[in-house]
Every structure is written in C-alpha cells, then in structure tokens.
Amino acid sequence: MYTYRPVDTFKDEDVHILDREERWFERGVKEAIYVKRKRPSLNRGGDVTWKVKANDRPYHQLPEFKKKVFLCIKKSKYSGNAIKTYKYNVITFLPLNLYEQFKRVANIYFLALLILQIIPEISTLPWYTTLIPLVIVLGITAIKDLVDDLARHRMDNEINNRKCEVLLNGRFQEAKWREIQVGDVVRLKKNDFIPADLLLLSSSNPNSLCYVETAELDGETNLKFRMGLRVTDERLQEDHQLADFNALIECEEPNNRLDKFTGMMLWDRERYPLELDNMLLRGCKIRNTDWCHGLVIFAGGDTKIMKNGGKTRFKRTKIDELMNYMVYTIFALLILVSAGLAIGHTYWYEAIGTKAWYLFDGKTQTPGYRGFLSFWGYIIVLNTMVPISLYVSVEVIRLGQSKFINWDLQMYFAEKDTPAKARTTTLNEQLGQIQYVFSDKTGTLTQNIMQFKKCTIAGRSYGSDPFYSKIQPVDWSWNRYADKKFQFMDHSLVALVRSKKDKDAMEFFKLLSLCHTVMVEHKDGDLIYQAASPDEGALVTAARNFGYVFLSRTQDTMTIREMDQEMTYEMLALLDFNSDRKRMSIILKFPDGRIRLYCKGADTVIYERLSPNSKHKETTQTALDIFANETLRTLCLCYKDISAEEFEAWSRRHKEAQVTMNDREAALDAVYEQIENNLMLIGATAIEDKLQDGVPETIAKLAKADIKIWVLTGDKKETAENIGYSCSLLTDDMEIHYGEDVNEKLTRRQASRRDDPQAYRRGKKKTAEPFFPGSNKNALIITGGWLIDFVDMACECEAVICCRVTPKQKANVVSLVKKYKKAVTLSIGDGANDVNMIKTADIGVGISGQEGMQAVMSSDYAFAQFRYLQRLLLVHGRWSYIRMCKFLRFFFFKNFAFTLVHFWYSFFSGYSSQITFEDWFITLYNLAYSSLPVLLVGLLDQDVNDRLSLKFPKLYIPGQQGTLFNYKNFFISLFHGIFVSLIIFFIPYGAFLQTMGQDGEAPSDYQSFAVVAASSLIFIVNLQISLDTSYWTFVNCFAVLGSIAIYFGVMFDIHSAGIHVIFPSVFTFTGVSSNALRQPYLWLTIILTVGISLLPVICIQFLSKTIWPSVGDKKYEMELKEDDDKKKPSAFQRGRRSRRSAYAFSHAQGYADLIASGRSFRRRPQAHGGPQESIREIPRRELTENDRRYEV
User: Fold this and answer.
1) Which residues does UniProt mark as catalytic (predicted)?
2) Is CATH 3.40.1110.10 correct for 453-688?
C-alpha cells in the first residue's frame, strides 16, 4: 500500500525544511520530487493581470484586456459564462466530420482506390464496388457522431439556460447563465447552483456567512462555509448599495487550484485581502442560506471547475491501435504481392503475350508500361484484403455492446432510478483488458456517512459485535431530542448513562457534546448540526442521543442539555484541529468556576501526552486495537483540570502567538503544546465510515482477476489507510513497508542506476532483483518521490493508496503508470476533482446519482454504485473483448481466403489483373453473403455465461495479456486464409481439367469455375463461423442458413436472362449458375472442397480442447479448486494486535476561527442553568501528581 502525504506532514529527515506554504508537489508526480514554490505576490509587477471592476461591463472590453486569436483579430480575454462541450454546429458538421473520418488511414486508402477505379486503363473492377460501401461507412459513422453531439448540445443548453438574478440598470433582473459576464453582481437563493466563480459580498446570515455544498467539486456532502469581507457585509446589503458598488478586484489568473485563491480588493482607496474563504466556486450549491450576493470574478471556461476538467483526450483501444498496424502490414503485403505480379506480367507479356496474335489489343504499349498498369490493377483487385466493411462492422458491434450495458438490469440502481450508461461506443473491448483501477474514496468507495458503532469508557468496551444481527436497536423514545436515524445496539451503555451513577460515562458524553466546532441550527423544532466533517457530526449526534444535547453556542459560550438539565459553559479557548496536531481541544469554565481542558485526537498523539497517573491505558489500547482490526475509525478522549493562575499565564502567551506576523501557525502550535500535557484518559470512540454496498466483495473479485486497485484521495493517511482495511484493499496478511526501509531501497536502486548507467540505456527498466523478494504480499507507505523506481516499487505491491493528492496529481499518477508500465488503466470517481483523472485514464467511469454530475459528464461509462464495476469489467468487458477478438480473427481469415483466390488465378491468366469471381459477387461478399453470421458472433457470442464470468475472475486474465488477438493470431488467420484459398482454387481447377457433364458438355469454362469457387467459399466461411460460435441462438442459426440462402437467391437472379436483357453490360453471367449447379459432379467438387478445408480445423479444435485447453475450458476444474480454497482457514486473525492508528477526523480545519471571532452569531443569549451537580471535583489546590482524577 503506497500512501502519498503532502510535504507539510513530513519529518525533517524526510524533506529539506521549508516553509509549509512554499512547498507543494509540482506537476503531481511528473517529476515525482518536491520542489519549492513561492506564494504569488500581488505587489510584484507582472503577477497581477486579472482585473475585474464591479458593475462595469465596458471596462472589460478595453484594448488592454484584448488578446490576439488569429492574425489581427482580437477578442476579450474574459470568457463569457456559456460553456461549450459540443464539437459541431450546422455549418461545420459536414466538413469537420469528413475531415475527422478521413484522418483514419483506411478511409483515405479506399478513397484512393475509388479514384483509381475511375481511370479506365487500370480499372479492373467497377467504381461502384468501392463507392457504395464507402458511402455507407461514412454515413453510418456520421450519423453516430451527430447523435452523440446532439446529446452534448442538449446538455450544454440545459446548463447555459439556467436562470439567476443579475444586477442590471440598478435592479435585479432574471437572466440566463450564458448572459452573465465578468464584473456582474448576481443574487442567489437557497438551493441554487453557483453559476460562476463569485466573490461573496453579503448574505442573509450574520456577517455574510454562507453555507455551500461542494459535492460537484469533491464528492463530499457535508457543508462548507464561506464568508464575505466585513466591509462588504456592512455596506452592501441593499440593492442601491450594490448598484453603487465600484470596487476593482486584482487577483491571480484563472487556474485549476481548487484550494487556493489570492487577490486584493481596492475600494474607496482602501485595499482588502481576498482568499479562498471569500469565494463561491461554480458547481457548488447554496445551502442553509436564504440569499446571497456575489461578484463574478471568473466566468465560463475560466472557472476553476472548468479548468480542472483537463484536456479532452481522444481515446482509442489497444485493439484499435493493433488493428491499424495490421492494416499497415496488409497494405505492405498488398504492395509487395502487386509488385511481384506486375513484374511477372512484364516478363510474361514480353515472352508470351507479344507472340500470341489472339492477345493483340491494338495498343502499342511496352511490356514495362503494361506491368506498371498491372500493378495498379492488382492494387484494385486485391484491395478486399482490407475491406471497408470491417470498420462499419466494428462500429455496429460496439454500438450493440453499448446498448447491452445500458439495458443491463443488474446494473440498474432502483433506489435512485439510475441505470448504467455507456456514454461512448468506441471503448467496450478495452473494458476486458484493464490492469489498473484508480479509484476516488469519498463518495466512490464510501457513502460519506459516519455511524457511531462502539466505544470504550474507563477500560470497558460497549457496542455489540457487528456479526450479531439479532439484537434489537436501542429505543430512544425517552429522549425527545434524539435523532431517530441513529442506531446503537448495546442497551447496557444507555442504562448506565440514564442511571447517572457512572461519572466516567457521563464525562465521556459531556466531552463529546462540548469538544467540537459544530454549528447548530434550530428548524421547525428540530436541531440540525452543521459539521466541518462527518466524523464530528456523528460524535455530537451520539452524545445527543445519549442525553447530552448540544443546543447552542455563541462567541464565548456553549449550551448543552445534560439529561434533564440545561447547562451553559464559558469557552475560554478553542484549540482547533489540523493535520499536524491530529487532535483538537477546548478550554471551558464551568458554572462553579472550575477550568477544564477537553481533548480528543489520534491515539498516537494522545498517548504521548497522558499523565503517568492516567488509568486504563492498557485496556483502552487493547480496545483500540480491536476497533482498528474491525476497520473502525477511532479517537481518544481525555481531560485536564487547570488552575486559574496556570490558565492566565498560558492565555497571555496564546494572545501573543495570535498576533505574531512570522509563522503564526507554528507559534500557535507551540503554545497549544504547552497546555496539552498531563492529560487524563477517559476512553475512546469507534466510528464506522459506511462503505457502499458490495465494495469489499467487488475489490476482492477484481483482485482475483489480477486487476490492481489504487485509491487516490485527498484525505489524510490514517483515514485512507483505515478505509483500505475496511474495503478489503488492505489485509492483515500484507507486509507493510514504512519510511526508512523504503527510502533505503530506493536509494540503493538509484545508486545502482548511477553505477551502471549503460544497463539502463540499453532499455532495462529495472534490475533483475525485485524490491520485495519472496512471495509475501506487500503494501507500501513511502515519503518522497523517485519517478520510475517509485512506479516499479508501487507496482510490485498488492495495494496502493495515495493520500492528500490534488486533482492534477491524481491525473499525473494515472499518467505515470500509463507511461512507464504501458498498462491499460481505468479511473472511477464521483466529483469534479476526479474529472482530470477520469479523462487521463484509458477508461473513465463516473459514479452518478448523489454527488452531482461533473464526473459523469466527463466519463466514458456511468453507473450509480461502485459494486457495478465488477459486472462492467468481468462480464461486459470480458465478453466485448472476446467477441471483438473472435470477430477480427474470422474477418481477416474470410477476406484472405476470398482475396487470395485472385492471386492463384493470376498464374493462369498471364498476371493480367483479371478477377476470378463475378463483379457482383465481389461487391456483395462482405455486405450480404458473409457479414451477418460474423456480426452476430461479435454481438452475442459468449464462452461462459455471466454467472460463471463473475464466479471465476481468472477468466479475465487472457484479456489483460492480449492473448486472443495479436500478431500471432493475425498470421494464423493469414495462413489459414492462404490454405483455404489454395483449396478453393486448385480443387475446382483440378476437377475442371478433364470433366464431362451428363449432357456430354464439359462445364470447364471460366464462368462455371467462378460459380463453383464462389459457392465453395460461401459454404466454407459460413460453416467455419459455425464451428467458432460458442453460444448458439435461433438468430445465429437463421443468419448462417439465411446467408447461404441469400447467396443462392441473389446469384440465380443476377444470372437470369431477364435482368441481362435490361442491363446487358452489367450482368454478364447469364444462365451460368443454373447450368453449372445442375451437374452432380460440380456439387461433389463443392462438397470435397468444403470438407478438405474444414477437416483440419475440426482436428485442431479437438486437440486444443483436450491437450491445450484454454482458461475458459478449465472452468470446471477451477470450480473444484475454488471449493478447496474455501475450506482453508482465513488469514485474518481477530486476536492479532495492531499498532496502526485508526483515528479519523476532518482533513480540513474546523470552524474554530469562525466561532472564536464571533462572526457567526447575531447576539449573545443569556446563560441558562445553575451549578453543575453531576460531577464534583477536588479543588485544584488539593490535586497532586499522584491524585489527579475526577470523582463524585
């Protein structure tokens, strides 16, 4: 398991000491090193080029804000707010689509053939034999592209035509999103989507506080807060004030940094700094705020969400690339064969043609020139080795496979009425070759729903084991404030708390109700908690249900209901959480004057700060290990009593640190460290981060299919590692390599690279010695970046988790694996922060439904639950790959067998580029006579059904290895075609040498020979595809018999006298078929030809299935082996001690600054309640080091 951490979490020995704000992971992992980056300064010349003036549209059209787009044409650098994802319009569709289609080499090839066929001197086939298929292919592809682009037009129009209120001419008017411009002031209401990147000016909440849901950006459903500047809050509440607003905003250029914004507002000769907390980003939704006003800073394509989308890449499958190379091979083969036959014609005409008077055509052309014309003639005759119908057939098969995905009811999520959707028709077979899956965590693997499951209080654990489901949940009817959705299975803890006899349990839940940064809203008599993270919300909700209800807070007080009594505590200090501290604390003054610090955090940091006299450390640690083994997220709870003198001295140092200008955050951390010591342990909580249904089973199935899953998340290491265990990505039998061990291995590899550079220049990507010798499973936690060696090391591991990665870094990790491992990758995510990763991977999958549609709009496939991924890959992907490979192998075979008959015929026709078959047979061979059976195999064939495909994931492995279609298979098809073409030509040829019919006539003319050879070919290719079909349906049977029937029906029609009379120059084989096929001798010839062609194939298939069975043929043997594996004991050991920290908390800072500033409160309510009765403390002066505890 590889865990990526930001530089600001590294120790000094890992990274050169730099200021936190000067370190970042440049270009993700492109160079895989940490580099220094200075914060942009708004005072340096040239850094600030983005200027926005409020309520002044003409200002943004000034010449200084113009940019050149073409020659002397200029336009404003400020984008309009309309977005465009479509490719064509009415004018550009036809030329642009034809241009794109003719970028495909095969289409240019067929266009060149058409031109050659128009030239009379070299034309050996009518021009319509190429024109008709070419027009059909271009037309079908154009229609498909048009349908796809119309869907993009509809999506764009739906978004661009959304309505909002814009301040125009002194009053707010309803306008469409597409009409919004930079510098406009807009008004948004509750539940509105934000149309552009806005500077928050004012809102209905106190101090212009505004809550936003960022699900479209990061997939998280917990609310974030944004806040306007105090000056705009005080002076921009009314419409006329907003109309007079004329500030100038100077800020950074548009970029994709979702976590950064730097700017300055100049208003009335005063300058006000701007940061990300003042911004409302496009794609978010307004929540719990009746209205707000914002100034448009970035619009349309300049917004951060659009910048994060990354460049749309044209995706092609590996089979597409391989097919192109094979087409080049066939083309080279065609040129070589044509050149050889042209040379043969030159020598033949010089030796024989010039001497045969009956061959004289009245032309005085030299043998060399005739050979030159023969070369182009053979290019036309043999062009069917690369039939144009191949590409239209591939498109039809892909379209059908996409429809099967859309129609799959087992991938339909009824709860949200969300079916699976194949948003592309060009990548289906690539789904059967995936080697690496890159997954987001929040909203993709998890539901982002936290549940309080267990706890340990004073050494005793509570909460039922999750394996016992017969226990009834606790009835909360005794508590009118209880959240009815909250479930807890242990009735003993509820009884203990309600009895009020256990001071430890009471103190435990009092801490949970007081030590947090949750905001509360009273709505319709109910309490609604707004938490910085779902973890905090779950803990406060648990305290609420157990009778300790958080009611309200002001800037310096907190009010809770302790069972039946309302109590108010004075908040003296709030020591907020961050990723370095891994804990948060609150210092409260009790109603009786006592001062107490409550603290909660990770066991790794809490245990270091416990008093030597603290009890229950060993039993609590044992409980933490058990919770961690059950993949629960844990927090330790503790307290400390503080004397008034100690607090006063600390408070002075705290205030000094708050106003320091140099490294304020480090100064505050140092002051916090001075008070957070000698803590007394109370217990620990255990929260379940609820996974989506079926995630562990899906990951286990994909792992058996040899698909490696990497989790890329913005969460911190401990949270991501915990989820890794929860979803079975990490298991207890894995050996995890940490820190110095990893650095030592990488350093050794780098040294080896330096000592022997020639070895690596010769193309060796890594040394023969693996990083982790042995057969054990490995997981990896690494600091620092080492480029190629990092990739090699990570790919040796069973599991990889990258933490604290930005959207750009996610894409770079995917790109790195694609580049250095040449692997087929799939990315799956649900938010806008996953869009870049989704576009970078070979296959992009979007999770649709709860967390917005940004990822879905950029994806290739979309569905509602992660668990559907196993069906998409192991069933649809595998079937699509097998079907496409079988289709291509047979298609190449049947066209080689068809085309090379002309080659053998050339030896008996003076290499004169004459055709063996009739013109119309050549035209209809791939369109009507042999297309339907192979097309149905490409659509419907399956070696095993979907149940067995899921039961035996190892059946997926041949697709990853590319064993079903490669150059080996191509040459097998080529030699098979050569063999069949030999049989088709020479057996009838031998039969026609000395033949006498029943009527005394010899049916040995060229036309009869053509009919017999063509009939033999039709029987062979249709019976051959029957032998290759694994899954028979009525449709397949009908297609095979129907193709043969169509051939004979059309042949007798076009050989009839009636059609010859109408078109005498087009239909020249008058009466041939009826004359030839009434001869039993020729039917015996056809049967002999078909039998000799198919007999070797039948023998080889028999030997293959008995002596060299494929993975699919071994499925029953695998079933027996799997049954044996089930009897083996599990590697998981419940009693095993784990020292991993399973703590979980918000990976972003909480609301401490907001609470401490008082900006979120309208007024301070009067304190409620009397002195505390539930807890009696020993006075501070009586406490000693040996007796620091709380008691009744």
Assistant:
1) 440
2) yes
Q: Helix 967-993 and helix 1080-1107: axis angle, to 10°?
A: 150
Q: In sequence order, what E strands does 158-305 have?
A: 163-168, 171-176, 185-189, 197-203, 209-213, 223-227, 248-251, 263-267, 270-274, 279-280, 285-287, 291-298
C-alpha distance from residue 714 to each of 4, 496, 793, 802 (Å): 10, 39, 22, 8
Distance CA 57, CA 53 (A): 8
Distances (CA, A) of 526 to 483, 521, 550, 1150: 9, 8, 12, 23
Name which of 490-494, 539-543, 1005-1009 the model is least confident about: 1005-1009
- Decide which of 464 and 233 is more confident: 233
Question: Do the Cβ atoms of 625 and 1134 come closer than 8 Å?
Answer: no
- Using pLDDT thresholds of 50, 70 and 90, give the confidence band for residue 808: confident
Detail the residues annotated as belonging to a binding site for ATP: 440-442, 536, 577, 600, 633, 713-715, 804, 810, 833-834
User: How far is 546 from 540, CA to CA, in rounded Å?
Assistant: 10
Burial (CB count <10 Å: 0-12, 13-18, 19+), residue 941: buried
Quote the pLDDT of residue 402. Answer: 93
Alpha helices in 352-419 (DSSP H): 367-381, 389-407
Tell me what percent of the chain is helix, strand and coil, each rounded to the nearest 5: 45, 15, 35
For residue 10, give every residue at least 6 positions away whose Cβ sits within 8 Å of its Cβ, in sequence order, or none.
Answer: 783
Overall average pLDDT of the 593-606 stretch? 90
Structure tokens given for 252: 């950074």
Please give the sequence-ordered ranges of beta strands (E in DSSP) within 984-1080, or none if there are none.
none
Q: 1061 φ, ψ to 5°?
A: -65, -35
CA distances from 874 to 143, 430, 707, 779 (A): 31, 12, 11, 25
Is the separation of the CB atoms in 48 and 251 below 8 Å? yes
Give ranges for CATH 3.40.50.1000 in the chain.
402-444+691-750+774-874
DSSP-derived letter for residue 1162 is S
Place of tokens 């592309």: 424
Binding residues: 440-442, 536, 577, 600, 633, 713-715, 804, 810, 830, 833-834
Helix residue spans in 161-256 (DSSP H): 215-218, 230-235, 239-243
**Better-predicted residue by pLDDT, 1123 or 845:** 845
Tell me the longest C-alpha to C-alpha distance in the chain: 133
User: DSSP letters along 92-126, please?
Assistant: THHHHHHHHHTTSHHHHHHHHHHHHHHSTTT--S-
d(CA 1176, CA 1185) in angstroms, rounded, equals 19
C-alpha 342/C-alpha 367 separation (Å) is 10
Q: DSSP per residue over 60-89, as a string?
A: GGSGGGEEEEETTEEEESSPPS--------
Residue predicted with more confidence, 1153 or 174 = 174
440 is catalytic: yes
- CATH fold, domain 402-444+691-750+774-874, is Rossmann fold (3.40.50)
Q: Which of 184, 440, 603, 943 is catalytic?
A: 440
What is the value of pTM for the model shown? 0.75
Helix (H) or strand (E) holding 753: helix 739-755
Binding residue positions for Mg(2+): 440, 442, 830, 834
Rounded mean pLDDT of the chain? 80
**829 dihedral zone (left: phi>0; alpha: psi -120 to 50; beta):** beta
Sheet containing 680-691: give its strands across: 460-462, 446-457, 680-691, 633-642, 595-601, 583-589, 565-575, 557-562, 548-553
